[in-house]
Amino acid sequence: MKKSLNIVVAGLGTVGSTTINLIEKNKHLLFLRSGLKINIIGIHAKNKNKKRNFNIKKYRWFDNPIKMIKQKDVDAVIELIGGDKGIARKVCFEALKNSKNLITANKALIASEGLELAKIAEQNNISIGYEATVAGGVPIISTLKKSLVSVKIKKIIGILNGTCNYILTNMMEEKNDFNIALKKTQILGYAEKFPESDINGLDTLHKISILCTIAFGTKINYKKIPFLGIQSITKEDIFFVNKLGYKIKLLGICYNKQENYRLIVSPFLISKKKELSSVSGNLNAIIIETISGNKNILVGEGAGGDPTATSVVSDIINLSNNKPNYVFGVPYNQIKRIETLNKIDSKSLFYIRTLVTDKPGVIAAITSILRDHKISIKSLFQKQVNSRSFNVVILTQNTNNESVTKASIKLNKCKFLKESSKVLQVLHI
Fold it and tell me: At residue 50, what are phi and psi to the nearest 5 degrees?
């Protein structure tokens, strides 16, 4: 076993700075637990003069990250810049091409080009550590690749974005509007200055795509998968959903039904009786269901520098303990590439909310549209907003998504609607 490891760090934002502090603060403990002395022999960031929570003068600074990578004594490159293009992409590919082990928190790059990275790593007999790409401090990657290596996975359901989970929790508990909840999340450091990829669901899509590849040995072209975020969720939706006995959670779901694979990213209604409904704040939670019906549930912090940096350091330590292995659990050339998905006709309950003009015949018109699309109603109630409008809230019986989509399109053409109808699925898979 190698007694020392020379690393370089590219990217000194929240995660990068926290990683360096974590290594320096716990150097002795890390050595006692792993027998490994970690040496930070180079650092790089876009702006050298930016204020950081550690003394950059203690480390050798490189204006050019590629030059830093190519230093002969570098054992591993820690890429924490982020993004699937530009310098972050170049750093990752150059590290592998120069036979340097790679550790990254870059879920966008692993989701989009993970197979190409895996190919180079396997050809050069080096490792890629990417535990930090999914669920922060929750060890979901190692669980799938190691702890559950002997079982077949049927389904993964996850709250994979701590930012969104905190926003929805805040809207529920403090009854704040979405924008107020988002601002509070940013103040606490759980959300970036520009959080679009978090709140629109793209971040979750990247993460569930990575888990799908590990769990099923299947690379689905996630760029062709429609996804929804939480930006359209209102405090009214939170209120009505709670009244119905549910909570709203942004979920990433992947599953295998008789060799038919699915990726889904969307807000779902979850019964208050289900495990995931109690996962609040910035926590992430993942349910792994095996073919035999066993469930494994992992819960932990998913947003912020500390949990992500913890996963980065864990990957660093693993370099001393493990021989290079297959990046996604199987050889990259055995991973099935899937461009299109077969249709799976599954049924579920649906929540439908419409804000309508207060006039006679509105309820009858709405229910007739649902009837025409063979949608039965489990419950219906209305709540006055003002003298001129009211909300109609419907929970359907089991029906398929196609019928609800067509009914919603028809509803949205009605002149009595004051805004587009809101449709959310109840978790059932």
Answer: -65, 140
